[in-house]
């Protein structure tokens, strides 16, 4: 199942409650393409404990700028609307799960 996209208009509602991992990405980004299937696997394994969403930085400059995203992929873990962890660059699945599990 594909991970749902968020945009400048829906972002705040999506991150407002619970634990949400947001993937800031772009279609032209090689490492973004590498991490996408890893996130889909994680979503399939622990998607009941956290939401995973994608935000295309090219189409959503407001949120991208608001959170100071300078490099992609950037993954931000939110709890009830607040950033609790940020990862920049490709991360192996084991690393991501380890970091996520510390917060769920």
Description of the molecule:
The protein is of the alpha/beta class and 104 residues long. It has a single domain (4-102), classed as Glutaredoxin, CATH 3.40.30.10. The protein is built from 4 helices and 5 strands; from the N terminus they run βαβαβαββα. Strand 2 (19-25), helix 2 and strand 3 (51-56) form a beta-alpha-beta unit. The chain is globular and about 30 Å long. The model has no long low-confidence stretch (mean pLDDT 95).
Which tags fit this structure?
about 100 residues; alpha/beta; Glutaredoxin; about 35% helix; electron transport; protein-disulfide reductase activity; Thioredoxin
- Helix and strand string, N-terminal first? EHEHEHEEH
Determine the mean pLDDT: 95
Task: Examine the coordinates and then state which fold CATH places here, giving the name of the CATH topology.
Answer: Glutaredoxin
Task: Say which CATH homologous superfamily is assigned.
Answer: Glutaredoxin
The total tally of domains equals 1
**Helical residue percent band:** 25-40%
Q: Any idea what the shape is?
A: globular
| Beta-strand content estimate | 25-35%
Structural class: alpha/beta
What is the rounded Rg?
A: 12 Å
Q: Tell me which CATH architecture applies here.
A: 3-Layer(aba) Sandwich
The major sheet is characterized as:
5 strands, mixed
What strand line-up does the widest sheet have?
Answer: 1-3-2-4-5
Number of helices: 4
Give the tally of β-strands.
5
User: Which consecutive residue ranges, at least 5 long each, have pLDDT under 50?
Assistant: none
Look at the structure and give the CATH class.
Alpha Beta
Distance between the termini: 22 Å
């Amino acid at each position: 199942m594909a991970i749902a996209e968020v945009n400048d208009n829906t972002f705040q509602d999506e991150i407002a409650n619970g634990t949400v991992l947001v993937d800031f990405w772009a279609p032209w980004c090689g490492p973004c393409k590498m991490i996408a299937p890893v996130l889909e696997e994680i979503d399939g394994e622990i998607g009941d404990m956290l939401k995973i969403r994608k935000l295309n930085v090219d189409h959503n400059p407001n949120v991208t700028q608001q959170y100071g995203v300078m490099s992609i992929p950037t993954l931000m873990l939110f709890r009830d609307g607040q950033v609790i962890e940020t990862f920049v660059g490709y991360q192996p699945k084991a690393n991501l799960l380890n970091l996520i599990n510390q917060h769920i």
